[in-house]
Amino acid sequence: MFNFNMSKKLEPRALLVFFRLQRFFQTFNVVAALIAGLSLAVLSFAEFHPTTSSLTRASEGFLCSSALTSVVAVMLATMLLFRFEGVQTASRKDLAIAWAPLVLLDWGIVEFLVGLVFWYAEKNNEWRSSIMGTQFAVLLLFTIWTSIWMWGVMSQKGGLGKEEDDGLKGLKQHRIRQLEERSDESLPS
Fold first, then answer.
1. Sign of the CA dihedral 150, 153, 157, 163?
2. Could you tell me if residue 86 is left (phi over 0), alpha (psi between -120 and 50 degrees) or otherwise beta?
3. What is the C-alpha to C-alpha distance for residues 3 and 19, in angstroms, rounded to an integer?
4. pTM of the full structure
5. Pair 42, 116: CB distance under 8 Å
6. Which residues contact 129 (CB under 8 A, 6 or more apart)?
7. Which of 86, 98, 107, 185 has the fewest C-beta atoms lying within 10 Å of its C-beta?
């Protein structure tokens, strides 16, 4: 049975994933800011002032949502940088929260792309729009498949690469030192 105790400390492999996510928060901030800027830039096009069709309105909605989601991702990642800076251990809850900026960034990117596809569909004829929509769908499915594959690979022992090997060796050495210190303290003087 699964133990869903969110305050439980992370195991070494999960702790490596936590530190890896934390290391990329600043990169997430840059990419999210670019997505927000691109969304707002596209919204400055003349066809959005005022919107005249359903597809343009849908595109406008997705692009606005993308900008909002991306800004929230930046805000969250920045707060988490302050919260987790210098942390040596983490709980399951910390790991779940650490995934939030990446999830929001991915969501903002998908919203941006859907908004672009809708905008393109409004500006072009049906066969071009079909090609663009099909390309987007295939690329999105490929991205989802790749993320599932990566999750499977990373879940296996050794799936985190050299960092996993080095981290586990360092953890074993740290535990050996702790045991030696405890045994030294228990010896009579």
1. negative
2. left
3. 22
4. 0.80
5. yes
6. 117, 120, 121
7. 86
